[in-house]
């Protein structure tokens, strides 16, 4: 997998520092509140596990699978929910946990849905913020790292289900995805 990388964008150490920073902010803001952390599958699961270990208070975890990419490198524009939550969000303080905010389409759709479901509050924590391709104005409340407009994989993020298990975030060589 390493040979498919153009470069390492964020090292394992840089990611760990971002998780520590975000964990402290979230622990402070949600002290005594027992928030519901909603992990957006599959990409954010690695980030979620490292992030919540930085929070000393109780948090509840849930998972939703929603995407507008459907195995491509660019968005289809249509958000599909493939797996919904197992619990109600009514009256809960919800924190969406996302690996990367790119177009904002998925999070805008999910935020609208959770408002309809009467969540008490909705915040977004993202490891990476890539504003260059933003199509929806979503407020990312907690950002770990700023991402340039490049196709990144690793640390949970994938291309065709590959590269998720890399401990760093790298820029994938264009020839890897252009030939498919």
UniProtKB/TrEMBL annotation:
Catalysed reactions, as listed in the record: IMP + diphosphate = hypoxanthine + 5-phospho-alpha-D-ribose 1-diphosphate; GMP + diphosphate = guanine + 5-phospho-alpha-D-ribose 1-diphosphate
Required cofactor(s): Mg(2+)
Subcellular localization: Cytoplasm
Main localization, broad class: cytoplasm
Pathway linked to the protein: Purine metabolism; GMP biosynthesis via salvage pathway; GMP from guanine: step 1/1; Purine metabolism; IMP biosynthesis via salvage pathway; IMP from hypoxanthine: step 1/1
UniProt cross-references to CDD domains, sorted A to Z: PRTases_typeI
Keyword check for Glycosyltransferase: yes
Enzyme superclass (EC): transferase
Keyword Flavoprotein appears in the UniProt entry: no
Signal peptide: none
Entry's EC annotation: 2.4.2.8
Family the UniProt entry places it in: Belongs to the purine/pyrimidine phosphoribosyltransferase family.
Protein name in UniProt: Hypoxanthine phosphoribosyltransferase
Organism field: Bombilactobacillus thymidiniphilus
